[in-house]
Amino acid sequence: MPKKGLLITFEGIDGSGKTTQASRLAAFLGQDRATLTKEPGGTPVGKTLRSMLLDPDLSIDPKAELLLFLADRAQHVQTLIRPHLEAGSIVIVDRFIDATVAYQGFGLGHPLELIASIHEKILEGMIPDRTFLFDIDPQKARERIISRGDKKTSVENRSEEFFQRVRNGYLLTAKEQPGRFRVIDALLPQDEIARIILADLESLDMSLMGNRPVRESSSC
Ligand code: TMP
Question: Which CATH architecture best describes the domain 6-219?
């Protein structure tokens, strides 16, 4: 069945603030129109995979890590994302395909062609309508993570050089696909970022905001 809804993804290195903005957008659009989900962990199977993947006490081989993130995505696309898109929902995903390219491709050095070919199999032509990339210097992002005070995950524990590669990978991907990506300065005030996102989505799909003016974004 052809896709009827919209697929919007949020990307960026850890500590970039994308999760806050994905939640704000979902709250603004409301549950009737939007579905907010995330990777890894958007499905019951994915929740189990997430707890393994992010456990700082487990040592997962890099090849196994790549395949587990992709397994999470396959389950997510088949059982949640595709059905909701076909039902006409605006599906907001906190991390998607570009995270694997940036983290496991550019960060860990897995071949990009391998990731692309598995994605082809999983996605069957489905790609995000819009991707917001939250760009931030890895050192500033690390300060934000430390100030949150939570125990760091296995991925967050990686070096600043790793996150620099991930950031560069994201920026390169965005440069190659300017039609899909919007790069956002993650250090801008939260309200301004929310306004940028709403204005952009309105230009993408005029019906998206319904009768609600973009100015209403203080509640976003
Ligand atoms: P989150 O904290 O934004 O939910 O993301 C969980 C972590 O998983 C984050 O450190 C990035 C990492 N990740 C990958 O390394 N590859 C992927 O494909 C995805 C989706 C996430």
Answer: 3-Layer(aba) Sandwich (3.40)
